[in-house]
Design brief:
alpha/beta; 6-stranded mixed beta sheet; 5-stranded mixed beta sheet
């Protein structure tokens, strides 16, 4: 009686081992490819994608196109500005690897510091700093601080804005006030300019706005800002930064940073900076945003 072997022949075993090693090699190569894509999903193709929000640059299409062309000329490859309405949308695209860099607020930068890298900080009046303003209608001569706005309708700019949301939240907490109960109604305008409009038009009795934006509007649209009055100014914070995703290649980081830093020394770059009402860009430091970290702690836990 012929018995069937329970074991393959030596030749069959070698064939199986060879096939197994081929499979392992394919899986290793596939894993490496997937890891490469995960590490830098955007830069698989030429061009930089940079995020902007309407919080700063609303209704400035011609300027944005001019800035794109400038960056393309300096970088030697395509540049595309990606615009969204809110900080949250732009920040999420950056965190998801769908953008290389973005001009965001210091608040989301602080929240997601471990997944972002500071690229550059705008210089305003020669410093990488700005403040939050509390504004009211120009004919309101009584309001002096947040404490005077109990029961009022109040306008915020964006829930991820330091100057337009976090600062007023923290300021009320310092006074022992629950922000959720203090105002009769609150709403988001999704841009600092529209906070000014809301207050000027009487849609809100008060609003929190980026001081840089209000100051710039006072030069470009004085007919709007003169219908409002600044009644309170915060301390200084690190200016809303340009940040990149942490996975961006070092060479691409250096190139982008060099172009931003060089704008102030370039005639065309200076022209663009003047339209932004900025002096240039500095490398900045993460310590610039420690004051925002303190605001976040107060807003979440109350003052000591």
């Amino acid at each position: 009686m012929k018995c069937l072997s329970l074991f393959p022949s030596a030749v069959s075993a070698r064939q199986i081992l060879r096939q197994q090693w081929r499979l392992v090699l394919v899986l290793v190569l596939l894993a490496c490819s997937l890891q490469s894509l995960a590490a830098d999903p955007v830069r698989q193709q030429p061009g930089f994608r940079i995020g902007l929000t309407a919080v700063f640059l609303d209704n400035q299409t011609s300027f944005i196109k001019a800035w794109e062309r400038y960056l393309e000329q300096k970088l030697g490859e395509p540049v595309r500005f990606v615009q969204r309405q809110s900080y949250r949308e732009i920040t999420q695209l950056l965190l998801d690897g769908q953008l290389d860099a973005a001009w965001i607020c210091g608040f989301p930068y602080v929240r997601f510091r471990e997944r972002l890298r500071l690229l550059g900080v705008p210089l305003y009046h020669g410093k990488p700093l700005y403040r939050s303003y509390l504004i009211v209608p120009a004919d309101d001569q009584q309001t002096r601080s947040y404490g005077d706005l109990e029961g009022a309708v109040f306008a915020y700019s964006d829930p991820d804005s330091n100057s337009g949301f976090l600062v007023p939240q923290a300021e009320l907490r310092r006074r022992g006030i629950d922000p959720a109960r203090f105002f009769s109604k609150t709403f988001f305008t999704w841009s600092h300019r529209d906070v000014v409009r809301a207050v000027a038009d009487g849609l809100a009795r008060g609003g929190a706005v980026d001081g840089y934006v209000w100051d710039t509007l006072s030069q470009t649209h004085p007919e709007l800002t003169r219908r409002t009055r600044v009644v309170w100014r915060s301390g200084y914070f690190g200016f809303p930064p340009f940040a990149v995703r942490a996975t961006l290649a070092a060479d691409d980081f250096d190139r982008l940073q060099q172009v931003l830093m060089g704008m102030a020394a370039d005639p065309q770059g200076r022209k663009l900076l003047r339209r932004l009402n900025l002096d240039g860009f500095g490398r900045g430091s993460d310590r610039l945003y420690d004051s925002i970290r303190k605001e976040l702690e107060v807003a979440e836990n109350g003052a000591e």
